[in-house]
Amino acid sequence: MKYHQIDRQLFIKNRAKFTAQMKPNSVAVFNSNDIYPVSADSTLPFAQHRDIFYLSGVDQEESILLLFPDAPYEHLKEILFQKETNEHIAIWEGEKLTKERAFEVSGVKSVIWLQDFHKTLKEIMAYAETIYINTNEHYRASIETETREARFVKWWKSTYPAHKVEKSNPILQRLRSIKESEEIDLIQKACDITEKGYRRVLNFVKPNVMEYEIEAEFAHEFLRNRSKGFAYTPIIASGNNANVLHYIENNQQCKAGDLILLDVGAEYANYSSDMTRMVPVSGRFSERQKEVYNAVLRVKNEATKMLVPGTLWKQYHVEVGKIMTSELLGLGLIDKADVQNENPDWPAYKKYFMHGTSHHLGLDTHDYGLLHEPMQANMVFTVEPGIYIPAEGFGIRIEDDMVIQEKGEAFNLMRNIPIEVEEIESLMNS
User: Fold this and answer.
1) Rounded distance between C-alpha atoms, residue 249 and residue 254, angstroms
2) Would you call 230 exposed, middle or buried from its count of C-beta atoms within 10 A (0-12, 13-18, 19+)?
3) pTM, whole model, 2 decimals?
4) Which residues, at least 6 apart from 206, have a Cβ–Cβ distance to it below 8 Å?
5) Which CDD domains does its entry note (predicted)?
6) Between vectors from CA 136 to CA 132 and to CA 142, what angle results, nearest 5°?
């Protein structure tokens, strides 16, 4: 890991919150992700399953966390299973977690080598009545590859068919959506690294630069600040490319007079940041670009005021739509007849702003959170309105990461990242 070790007290707290929600005499099991093959002997870089990381801090493949709070013996209440390390592995792959280091990272006292997992589980299942399986129920999930977690669930069901089954995900959706102060600090660190990348890029952009060169500048700054890199596939979209919402080719030349949409964010310690900013290739916004930009900024600022405890996500988007409608009328992009005759299922503003305004942020860029439940303090949301105008050759989106407060306006984790037209122009021309 590149990041500084996280205080294990965070993971001890997280496990305590989870086990408090478990039914009596039940077991919960969490698996690491696989290392995914490419072809031949090539593999993708390992990325830890966020749930086992949230509960243990273990950032290593072939790890299993087992929680059994009602176990008859103390050593069975929490167990971390790790692949046994040795001198050969240390030479070829680097050092893996020893039992002592696994405890230091996680706070789990009982660390057992993975080869003894099935024997240990067999004993535990003789005591337990229920198992919590960990399924992916995120509203954006689209899964085609069988995960290590899914293979375990299939194996467990066939091996222990008489036990009751519960789901971990509903508990984790609520717990992970409300951040501990330590987690907010880690997201802030990711945002601070993103800020460094953005300021670097402001000094780099000029006519004829390639989109991928800008991507490289971000990557350089992220890596030199202890990040593994981008929290998600970066969007570096110049000119009309900005009107493709998930443009990731990043292979075009940035032309004088165009805008570049930068939707990028650094990760830090597996926590995500998510930023969108606009950069004028020539260092100045045109009057029309500035007019649209400031309209989007006003929508973002008004939307942010609604991120308070008790707000319902669905109604929030309805209200943001009303604000956007007003701005689009002012820009001359729609007229009153468009609004009067609009389809309620696809309002007039959707022609220019067709995506949502906010999503949960945390260990995942689109983090856990139950959208039908009211917003609560210490939830982290993005705010990212946009206006996309293919006919005029540009699109604009602006995005910050906000922490909902008990009282008052949400706290902006990206408050130090330049956002006003004048500040961006000043920095680019200094």
Assistant:
1) 13
2) buried
3) 0.97
4) 281, 283
5) Prolidase
6) 160
